[in-house]
Amino acid sequence: MAGFRIREPEMLALGMRLPSLAQRAAAVGALPSLGLLTLAGLAPAHWEMTWHESTSQRDPESLAALAERIAATRPDLAAISALTASIDDAYALAGLLRRRGVRVVMGGLHVTSCPDEASQQCDAVVVGEAEGVWERVLEDAAGGRLATRYRAEKPFDLGQAPLPRWDLLGGRARPRYTLQTSRGCPFACDFCGASRLLGPFREKPAERIAAELKHITSRQPRACIELADDNTFAGRRDPGLLLAAMARSGVRWFTECDWRIGERPDVLSALAASGCVQVLVGVETMEVGAESYSGFGAKRAPLARVERALENIQKAGVAVIGCFVVGGDHDDEESIMRLGQWLLEAPLADVQITVQTPFPGTPLRERLAREGRLLPDRGWESCTLFDVAYQPARMTVQSLERAFRYLVALVHAPRAGARRAAIRKQVWAQRYGAKQESA
Ligand code: SF4
User: Which atom of ligand 1 is nearest to the CA of 231?
Assistant: First the structure.
């Protein structure tokens, strides 16, 4: 299950009308599911694999057609991976396949957080990382003794990561490929579902990254790669080895990290030359007008320091997409308006704004549940990053929805988008020269 999801019709319509938002949604939707392709790479050679993708949202006809296509291959096992916002579609697909006699195993972040729920919808669930148990799952499926639950005994060594089976995508050209150079994050922001659910933070050795890069570029030279990392430079490895591997491969790449790379000459000095074109930086919650922005833990700092760091990244020739989350307990309509006004002037090449989302498995969700603030009529389909699924502390649900739509419309308005496009052009001009400014 891939692609962006938005539950609320007004928000969906707004997203469609805003070209810069629609563009980003299309780019994310075009990313292949790295998890399943990686597991396919771990399967013994006698297993034959097919890969199917669904971006449809609550569309019974397209799910039925997909189930037909999969069942027609008469598989020994179907593996489904989905995020929370698409989990109901994934369960529906599992049901359709099981009714056609296909056994189904499910895994991923949502299933790891809610294994009992998932167990009711499929034959087997994999809790946590699947790499360590995948061969056993396949052997058990082939031997007709599939267990109901699998869980790896120890964290997977990323140095043993297999090459993803990109060939399963067929001959279709892909605008972007994904590569994971680290898993998880050493921090633990309370709203973050990705940081710890799959085990401790780990980094992939540079030689393994180089092998994956070679594999991708043999399929598409000068590929564009989105790193499937949560926070690329947060660990202790020498960034020079990663950057050198990227530079040697000749790819252009994009990743997620935190603002502190703007204070690290060891990263900034080689970032642009390694092919990095832009970074999505989690500024997260921010109180404009106050001295501090309310980031978390090691990322909390005075606003002026964060701004300087973001500017340093862009001066190094790498565009910054500033990522902001609204709806935290400090937010009210006025603070969201102030953020909007600040963003209209901010020196950022792009922005991403989302609503705080209580993903399963996060401390945020546990706290909101304890406080009785999860909205009973808004299930998993509201965990999209664009829909409100809880009672905000300082405003009504409707006020937050209204303020969020206002903010999105304001910062993605054509004029604001054009201003950021000009900043992007200027940032990239420093690295490519005027000739390639429009690339
Ligand atoms: S820094 Fe980013 S990736 Fe790490 S825990 Fe916080 S939100 Fe998650």
Answer: 3
